Amino acid sequence: MSRTPARFTQADVNRALKAAKKAGAGAVRILRDGTITIDPQPDSAGDKVEKSVEAEREIVL
């Protein structure tokens, strides 16, 4: 039985985190299916999060 190829690599994770940090993003989510999403809005620790009317921007690498 052969191994399946990785859906994402450590290099993919490093690139996503580095880009998110440089852009001042609020969060990075890496899902099991290999999807990496970066939330461009920085989160404030004490503020309540409200849903915006605008569609959520999603960056998929």
Descriptive overview:
- The chain is α+β, with helices and mostly antiparallel strands.
- The chain has a domain at about 10-40.
- It contains one helix and two strands.
- It has one helix at about 10-25; strands spanning about 25-30, 35-40.
- Strands 1-2 form a two-stranded antiparallel ribbon.
- A hairpin with a 5-residue loop joins strand 1 and strand 2.
- The model has no long low-confidence stretch (mean pLDDT about 75).
What key phrases describe this protein's structure?
elongated; 2 strands; 13% strand; alpha+beta; two-stranded antiparallel ribbon; 1 helix
What is the number of helices?
1
Q: What coarse outline follows from CA principal-axis ratios?
A: elongated
Radius of gyration: 14 Å
Structural class: alpha+beta
Portion in strands: 5-15%
In total, the number of strands is 2
Strand ordering within the main sheet: 1-2
Spatial separation of the terminal alpha carbons: 29 Å
Q: Report the major sheet.
A: 2 strands, antiparallel
Q: What is the H/E string? A: HEE
Give the helix proportion (percent range).
10-25%
Q: What is the residue-mean pLDDT, rounded to a whole number?
A: 76
Low-confidence stretches: none
Describe the secondary structure blueprint for this structure.
Blueprint: H1 10-23, E1 27-30, E2 36-39
Antiparallel strand pairs: 1-2
Question: Quick recap of the structure?
Answer:
The protein is an alpha+beta fold and about 60 residues long. It has 1 helix and 2 strands; from the N terminus they run αββ. Helix content is about 25%, strand content about 15%.
